[in-house]
Specification:
With 500 residues, the protein is α/β, with parallel strands linked by helices.
């Protein structure tokens, strides 16, 4: 490493990599410091016994944001994506989510007494989906505006460019999925299947639209997606230093002047971009003396999103043996019983989990005649006294609990994949503490904040109270995920390039 760079990016998550690639393209000398042994954050893969397994994110959505950014950075042609299909399995239905018409038809067949209600409910879904394709690309240029005049300009242009969608936003602005389902559906089982406390607008725009036609998988695994960024950055003269942990963001006169590494070295820069957990950024990396007390308290107290428990499997089952898996992503709700996520018995007959089989669309992930299967379920960081750890240390009880939960999830999955436990070649598990250890996201949070941290219309948090310190990633704009992380990276880079 040199002693001085134009920009230092802390963390090689997808937001930091997007920002780094854009800055390198703009002619900046960039250093990216990543504490892990590989770039990517939640978007990584690892190898076990010839199987390639994805560590966190299992696919990407909202291609109207991701693909144009990749094209702009010169990465689009480096990574091949294939479309992923969804399937939902409950005690009453086994449905491939490949078209709204097929979904409506199957639901009406299974719940004939609610035929009219099903048709009426999905009429609302169709109305919102119609506009979703044009809204995603629009966000590339207008989301997360930094200057007030840009925000005002966007608010003036939006009603003209997207009048139909604006009408729907107003109509559904206070409607939850649960509200609308209750209005049309009478069958309790179907209510359980369709209901959620989420905003109806968000559910229709993202969940139904993405599951139907906008979920993609990068051939070679999620790491191949990340490697496209790394290659572009390094070819452009940028530096990615792995196994390099930043201890402090150096601030002088309320303006960043660089970073201090864990080994004591100080690297100077005019700008710093933090792709790190927001809580860590402002309670550990930046000294409290540079921040307002109420801001620090807000950062500390705001709740983070939930996490996941994951079982990674390499199995000696081929595609024919997985005949019940008709979508690469299977949403499993095999019981109507509701359980508290902190219930010790939560994973025994788990009320909801997901089966991901990426090798169905990418046979490079597993040896011939074998498959990669990932089981994921919602998880609490506080489950069983922080997963039976002692002051954060992974003890024997922790390992035993992790294996027990893995066994329970595998046993439940065997209702869909018979004798799965007898065909395991490689196996590994990850708890929320695992996610926290590898990504440094507080409590293993998978989408950043669990509640709104920032208020206001499109009020992204790219800018900070410290001059020339920017934040990117899923903590910087709700709701978190790969598309918004990439958007924040793009916007932060644009803000820096305007100043250089």
């Amino acid at each position: 490493m040199q002693e001085k760079y134009d920009v230092i990016v802390i963390g090689a998550g997808i937001g930091g990599l997007t920002c780094g690639a854009a800055l390198v393209k703009g002619g900046n000398k960039v250093l990216i410091c990543e504490q892990h042994s590989k770039p990517g954050g939640y978007v990584t893969s690892f190898e076990r016994g010839g199987f390639i397994l994805d560590g966190g994110t299992q696919a990407v959505s909202v291609s109207g944001i991701i693909f144009p950014i990749l094209k702009d950075l010169g990465i689009r042609d480096k990574v091949k994506f294939v479309k992923v299909n969804y399937q939902i399995i409950t005690p009453d239905i086994d449905l491939k989510l490949d078209s709204i018409e097929a979904i409506v038809g199957e639901l009406k067949k299974q719940f004939p007494e609610d035929s009219d209600g099903i048709e009426a409910y999905f009429k609302h879904i169709r109305r919102v989906i119609k506009d979703s394709k044009e809204i995603a690309p629009a966000f590339i240029d207008v989301a997360i505006p930094l200057e007030r005049w840009k925000k005002i300009l966007f608010m003036l242009k939006f009603p003209i460019l997207h009048f139909g969608f604006l009408v729907k936003m107003i109509k559904y602005r206070k409607t939850t999925v649960k509200d609308l389902v209750a209005k049309y559906i009478t069958n309790d089982k179907l209510k359980f299947l369709l209901s959620s406390p989420s905003s109806f607008l968000g559910e229709a725009m993202f969940t139904w639209y993405m599951m139907r036609e906008d979920t993609w998988y990068p051939i070679g695994g999620m790491q191949s997606f990340v490697n496209g960024f790394a290659e572009t950055i390094e070819k452009g003269g940028g530096v990615i230093n792995l196994g390099t942990k930043v201890e402090k963001i150096v601030v002088k006169d309320r303006k960043v002047s660089g970073v201090r590494l864990e080994d004591g070295r100080e690297i100077h820069s005019d700008f710093v971009v933090s792709n790190v957990d927001y809580k860590q950024t402002f309670t550990k990396l930046v000294d409290n003396k540079h921040l307002q007390k109420d801001f620090i308290e807000k950062v500390k107290k705001t709740k983070v999103s939930g996490s996941v428990f994951t079982v990674y499997l390499g199995v000696d089952l081929d595609k024919k043996a997985l005949k019940k898996i008709r979508g690469q992503h299977v949403i499993c709700r095999l019981t109507y019983e509701k359980k508290d996520i902190n219930d010790p018995e939560f994973y025994k007959e788990c009320p909801e989990f997901w089966i991901c089989v990426p090798s169905l669309v990418d046979d490079t992930l597993a040896p011939r005649g074998k498959s990669v299967i990932t089981l994921q379920a919602p998880a609490s960081y506080k489950y069983m006294n922080k997963w039976q750890t002692e002051n954060g240390k992974r003890t024997k009880p922790y390992k035993e609990l992790k294996q027990k939960v893995g066994n329970e999830l595998i046993a439940t999955a065997e209702k869909i994949i018979p004798n799965l436990s007898k065909h395991i070649v490689v196996r590994d598990e990850a708890t929320p503490l695992t996610m926290e250890r590898y990504t440094l996201n507080a409590e293993g949070a998978t989408t950043g904040w669990g509640e709104a941290f920032h208020k206001g219309f499109l009020s992204g948090s790219i800018t900070t109270p410290i001059k020339n310190l920017f934040t990117v990633g899923h903590w910087s704009f709700s709701s978190g995920g790969v598309p918004t992380a990439m958007l924040t990276g793009k916007k932060a880079a644009e803000a820096i390039l305007e100043k250089t």
